[in-house]
Amino acid sequence: MGTKKEKKEKTNLYAFIQPQAEAALRMAKTARFDEGGIANMLGAFACELFLKIILDSDESDMTEGHDLKVLFGKVCEKFPIAKEQILSIYEERKGPNYLILRSNITMVCSRIPEWITARQEFEIKLDRDRLVFINLRYFYEKPGILRFDDFVIEFAEVLKEFIYSNPNEYKLLW
User: Which domain covers residue 75, as residue numbers?
Assistant: First the structure.
């Protein structure tokens, strides 16, 4: 568990991290229509911070890394009910009976159109955008086509809603 001093230091860290996650999401939403790259980088950063708030809510050591799929997998391992709740929020935001063509996400066309659900879309986009924060921070070093569709901003909004709906479990300070 740690000493009182360690707990106080961690609480102070949360007091710093939570507003940063909120600010990154707010800036991402503001920039999304003007600067797609920076908006998605900030959205991915917000996702990372929200996932780490969830992961480290039990007084454990601070989690490291930028891979959103790995961080989300750790959340699902540590808090199995969280995956269902987060995916349910994502589905609710998409609306009832939501379907999308897989080719709209993967950019790979097939002869037979394949319709997928919001949950399947979430998994595909999370896999595709897992390293957006890293890739966009250093995009000038790796020229190529950057494709944006605001998934990470939407994911950050879902994570924020999830955390706000469970304030006692995740020691919210805001």
Answer: 4-83+130-165
